[in-house]
Amino acid sequence: MTTATPERSPVPDVSGRLTVTRALSLLGGVPFLGWLLGGLAAVLAEYLFGLPLALALGLRRIPVLFGFEVMLKAPRYIPGTLVYLVLVYLIPAALVALATARVTDTLAARLLRSPALSMVVHLALLYASIHLWCGLSDYRYLVGRLALIAVMLTLSLNVVNGYMGEFSCSHPGFMALGAYTASVLTVLFFVEDDVFGAPLLPPALGPFFFPLALVAGGLVAALGALAVAIPSFRARGDYLGVITLAFTFVVKSLFENLEIVGGPRGFMNQPNWAGLPTVFAWTVVCIAVINNFVRSTLGKALNAVRDGEIAAEAMTVDTRRTKIVAFLFAAFWAGVAGGLFAHVVSYINPATFGVQKLAEVLAMVYFGGLNSVIGSIAGGLGLTLFSEALRPLEVWKWVIIPVLLVFVMANRPTGLIAFREFDVMKLLGPRRGRKEGSQNVSAQG
Amino acid sequence: MRRVFTALAVLAMAAALVSSGCAGRGAPPTIKIGVNAELTGDIPKVGESCKRAAQMWLADIEAAGGLEVGGKKYKVELFIEDNESKPESAAAAATKLITQDEVLAIVGPNASKVAIPAGEVCNNQKCPMISPWSTNPRTTKDRPWVFRACFLDDFQGPVVARFVTEEFNFTKAAVLYDVASDYPKGLAEFFKKAWEEIHGPGSVVAFESFVTKDRDFSAQLTKIIASGAEFLFTPQYYDEVPLILKQARELGFDKPVVGSDSWGSAELVKLAGPLSYGCFFSTHYAAAGAKGATKEFIDRFKAKYGEVPDDVAALTWDSMRIVEAAIKAAGKITGDLATDRKAVRDAMAAIKDFDGITGRMTFTEEGDPIKAAVIVKISNTGEFEFYKFVSPK
Question: Does residue A346 contact residue A273 with C-beta atoms inside 8 Å?
Fold first, then answer.
């Protein structure tokens, strides 16, 4: 289980010779609020001066995905793109973060008196940055939403595979259940469709009912999860893995044979309601709920079941309840993510929710880190954006990404940021105050 | 700190000079065409053929010194994106082509499962798209900006049924298809419907299915043999057909096997060998025995890439030429992307009797071509030989 990692106190370099160390320790003094401001400054800089700067640097337009898409196709743009990245992202972000460090640190400490307010301020800043960044290009807007959905999927799978330590392969199945349920509901009620006919309710009401459709999708997925949760009482490890894999195939075959939702030809006409604010809000709720869940007593019971089921049982952990809750909970969020996915792409077919999707989500979980909310966020965002950025490489992409995974697994067998507790209050808090606080704690201990 | 910033500033200026020198500012406007192809994923051969045909078209344009529109020559640039055969990636690739690369029109994707979401993006963003190979009606349905270069499944099913009836006078059909894949399933059902319309209910004596990646069909084939069917229709892909043929012959099924346009890959004959000789299938064009422009295309493709172009290559070639014709017919390039895209779309919709290598095409209101199907016979040397034309009724 997680223990509080000992704080490395960033002692300012007295001699002043090692500027790099000093710069790093300076950066270490910037609170999260400062970084968010820095990020916002960078995005604003791009919003205001991005295009003229890109043109002045000889680029055709703003490099959308950190310049990968330009540099991989036309190496002659590499110097210009790199300079652009430094000028637009690195310098404004670092400058603003450093310049405001003192103010933001005090502010972060003040804000922390009301955790809810602190959360709202941080989220608002984060959303503003993402909104501006994605707003500059439809391509970013699409990729950003897909990346956030990937975070939800990764995180929910981590509940079972990381926290509870079972190797579950049923996530594409849960996702399909959620995607189809939400799609059928929205199309049935709010869209003129060949199969379902005229909308049953005025389409203008649609966006307000959309969350209900997503929740319904999540609930159906959770219901489906009973099919793997109950066998998990008796089977563990590889055997449960096979059962969960079978579940994915069952769901896929189910939709392939359900003519009413298009069979293998897929289901379309989903209304375009999953915009960036919607997806962002759901992702935030998902992260918050799952983070609280895994840090609760029930969440700790997951770890107990993983580390020793019999011992956990002996220590009064209700292992059956724990397993059921974990599977249903993970499935619910996978279902919601599936519903959002369907409304982002506006088309789903059973083949999407197959072994390939499973491999993607598993890779994100194990790349990001087991038993770690931060790791799942990193894994979901990182792999989605990276795989999108490498698209111009075509087949070579499928050489580079697996090699990268092998490399990460060889060096960090449990993933990049594994077994780390995600303490939101600590993250949002000031840096200096925290240092003193942790020193106090260690002095007391 | 200051030294670092100075260094960065110098670097920035140097880079700006270098790259603006390289980029060649002030060049004449270019016409950009996007290709959204399945270069990786489960059907990479399709993407490869598509890419090759598109590049061959580009080479032609370059050899001619550019594309002439309204008396002015424009340089043409091709943007080829990989859609990984995944719906969400196809949407992302289409969005990228439209908003980043600012293409005038998009050719592809080919498979329906990727063409449908990409079509949605293109239609919403108002960028003309033409899919060379997607046969699902929904790709173009209610989407004025989306076209295709091939006929649909609901045309091909009846074509096969009519051909077999006229050619062999058979009355009892058997069908073996992949229930988990959209194309075979759709075609199998359209065929069944057409066959039963001609020969009455129950004339499809065996309607057997399997699931993608199945490799043993003996159970289904045994049932088909027992049903007394006079021939087998199997609208499967080149990786499955050889296995089906082999297992059918081993089980003692000696009746004709008929296929659909998914058979039209050189790989099929390579894998099935003599087992495939004498089989018939319906498709978009026939390589052996081709004449005129079709033959010229085949010979050039063969010389360049060392293999006979499959139907995807031929249809991509036609799609590229339809785009070319539409751009020319649009008359001028204003430089304003929205105006130009609209002009190209309108010109494409107005195309009449386009003389393609896969047949003469006119688009319907839905953006689907009216064109004839070709029945191909696999010759005794393993070539796809033209057998006859079957026109739409």
Answer: no
